[in-house]
């Protein structure tokens, strides 16, 4: 449908510049990744994080992956980028420096702005899927 709209628009345009045809881009599919991917340990004895996909846009990269926290030491993390996270399993207790506190469960969605300092803890475990505006491996 996009090419139909492009052709319609270009035929009514007063510009005589030829339209560039681009090569189609394939999407990436990671089958069963939520259950098969084991993120590496990043802090303490209980905090795991790993990127599973990263965009190829050098000026505004985005990375996506999984964060898992198990019962134990709380993780205090200061975001140097913007991030969105959806809780996909388990539970987290999430707080910030403003005093806001949330008991997060499966289905909850969060936005962590650049510069926020977030504390994650859990009495059991929690698994979140994130998308962050950063290069691969820079969390």
Automatic annotation (TrEMBL):
<feature type="region of interest" description="Disordered">
    <location>
        <begin position="1"/>
        <end position="21"/>
    </location>
</feature>
<dbReference type="InterPro" id="IPR014710">
    <property type="entry name" value="RmlC-like_jellyroll"/>
</dbReference>
<dbReference type="Pfam" id="PF06249">
    <property type="entry name" value="EutQ"/>
</dbReference>
<dbReference type="InterPro" id="IPR011051">
    <property type="entry name" value="RmlC_Cupin_sf"/>
</dbReference>
<dbReference type="InterPro" id="IPR010424">
    <property type="entry name" value="EutQ"/>
</dbReference>
<protein>
    <submittedName>
        <fullName>Probable ethanolamine utilization protein (EutQ)</fullName>
    </submittedName>
</protein>
<feature type="compositionally biased region" description="Low complexity">
    <location>
        <begin position="1"/>
        <end position="16"/>
    </location>
</feature>
């Amino acid at each position: 449908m996009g090419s139909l709209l492009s052709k319609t628009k270009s035929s009514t345009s007063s510009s005589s510049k030829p339209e560039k045809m681009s090569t189609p881009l394939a999407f990436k599919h990671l089958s069963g990744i939520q259950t098969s991917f084991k993120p590496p340990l990043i802090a303490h004895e209980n905090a795991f994080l790993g990127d599973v996909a990263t965009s190829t846009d050098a000026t505004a990269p985005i990375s996506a992956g999984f964060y898992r926290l198990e019962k134990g030491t709380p993780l205090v993390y200061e975001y140097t980028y913007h991030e969105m996270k959806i809780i996909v399993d388990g539970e987290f207790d999430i707080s910030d420096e403003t005093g806001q506190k949330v008991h997060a469960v499966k289905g909850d969605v969060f936005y962590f702005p650049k510069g926020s300092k977030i504390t994650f803890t859990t009495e059991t475990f929690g698994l979140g899927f994130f998308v962050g505006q950063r290069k691969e491996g820079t969390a």
